[in-house]
Specification:
By secondary structure, this protein is α/β, with parallel strands linked by helices. It contains eleven helices and 18 strands. A hairpin with a 5-residue loop joins strand 17 and strand 18. The radius of gyration is 21 Å and the shape is globular.
């Protein structure tokens, strides 16, 4: 079924009886060309691009829970490509370009809203750092504007400019950044992959990997064994647990990252703001709620919930930036399990086991990377060589001394 304005009108006139399920809830087959472990945004995007770009459709996506129940539905929905280092900026700009055409590509309303992302600075040194970052972005053809205080005030008059402990001096602005409806991304990719023949299998946990002679031949699951020529893991915060089934120990820790939504209110935040004097970021959803978050909880956990000290820290940052937030009520929160690498940058690579591939270590950047991650992972699976924009995301980069330390925001809370 193709979605269109005419289709919506027709269904409205005929009692909405013609809609079909968004994707097939498939039963597992005995054998596949590719098994993708993890039915989040990255796994579903990988399956979609395998089918649409590389013509590989005998694919199964195995999800231990339900589609949209993991990190793809537990984030603050921000997309941006305002990175600086050569290993990161081309990749995230590739992702941004895929975001810009995503809804037309998979014929689903993901609510891509390029409302702008503004990173505030509060000192001369921070201004200089953002100037360097903006110049690096421009060298890669990415939009970047360095604003002074008047420029920021014109965009966000309600911030604390007069008596803040960390006065706002200006900000680095990427106009093409913004937000996307997170769960709609999962549903859109699931729908696009399913209609091209990919089997999306929910409530199917991988419990073991069948490896013989240094090559993977399939997986053991809660719904029985499944054979495959290639197995691709992309399970976010569960990366260490899943890859341990193959005897691998990863340079990754799992941490909880919380996010919050306030009660709905009239539009007051036109875009996305990040606070330069603390780990706090803020946007406003289409339904009027303020969406915000902060730092990881600082301890290893596989729980999808956080603790009160981080809530206090996030609210303190919000109040410092915009005191009027003190009148808003927080109505819900959630926690995602982050796969934090040691240098804050991800991996998309083959492993030492023939036919076994790994995608993880996304830290804070997983959601914004969804399209490029899926595309590059699909390229790796189809061609057995890294995509041109993902050549630095290798598992052996620590051994080679080739870390991609964008901002020192890896797994250690003391480095944040």
């Amino acid at each position: 079924m193709r979605y269109s304005a005419l289709r919506i009108l027709w269904e409205g006139l005929t009692g909405n009886k013609g809609w079909t399920p968004t994707w097939r809830d498939a039963e597992p087959k005995a054998d596949y060309d590719v098994i993708i472990v993890g039915g989040g945004g990255h796994g579903l995007a990988t399956a979609y691009y395998l089918a649409t770009v590389y013509g590989i459709t005998n694919v199964a996506v195995l999800e231990k829970g339900w589609i949209g129940g993991g990190n793809v539905g537990r984030n603050t929905t921000i997309i941006r490509s305002n990175y600086m280092l050569p290993g990161n900026e081309p990749f995230y700009e590739f992702s941004m370009k895929l975001w810009e055409n995503l809804e037309q590509d998979f014929n689903y309303n993901a609510m891509v809203s390029q409302r702008g992302v503004l990173n505030l600075y509060h000192s001369d040194a921070q201004r200089d750092a953002y100037a360097r970052r903006g110049n690096a972005m421009r060298m890669y053809g990415v939009d970047a504007d360095l604003l002074d205080q008047d420029g920021v005030r014109a965009l966000y008059p309600g911030l604390n400019y007069d008596d803040a402990r960390f006065p706002i001096q200006g900000g680095l602005y990427q106009r093409r950044g913004g937000t996307v409806r997170h769960d709609a991304v999962a549903w859109g990719y699931a729908r696009g992959a399913s209609e091209r023949g990919v089997d999306i299998i929910q409530n199917c946990e991988v419990t073991g990997m069948d490896i013989s002679g240094g090559r993977i031949t399939g997986v053991q699951t809660s719904r029985g064994p499944i054979r495959a020529r290639k197995v691709a893991a992309c399970v976010a915060g569960s990366s260490s647990k899943v890859m341990s089934l193959a005897g691998m120990r990863l340079p990754i820790e799992s941490h909880v990252l919380q996010a919050f939504v306030s009660e709905a209110m009239k539009p007051i935040i036109p875009g996305v703001i990040t606070y330069g004097a603390g780990h706090f970021y803020l946007s406003q959803s289409d339904k009027g709620g303020l969406v915000f978050g902060g730092d990881i909880d600082g301890y290893n956990s596989y729980a999808q919930r956080g603790n009160l000290p981080v809530i206090e820290d996030v609210c303190e940052g919000g109040m410092s930036l915009m005191p009027s937030l003190g009148r808003a009520k927080v109505v819900r929160s959630w926690g995602g399990i982050m796969d934090m690498s040691m240098d804050g940058s991800p991996f998309i690579d083959q492993t030492g086991v023939d036919g076994l591939y790994f995608n993880g270590g996304w830290c804070y950047g997983g959601f914004k990377a969804t399209p490029a991650s899926g595309y590059c992972y699909a390229h790796l699976l189809a061609r057995d060589e890294p995509h041109a924009v993902a050549t630095e995301y290798r598992l052996d980069r620590f051994q080679r001394g080739a870390m991609i330390d964008e901002k020192g925001v890896g797994a250690q809370p003391n480095l944040h």
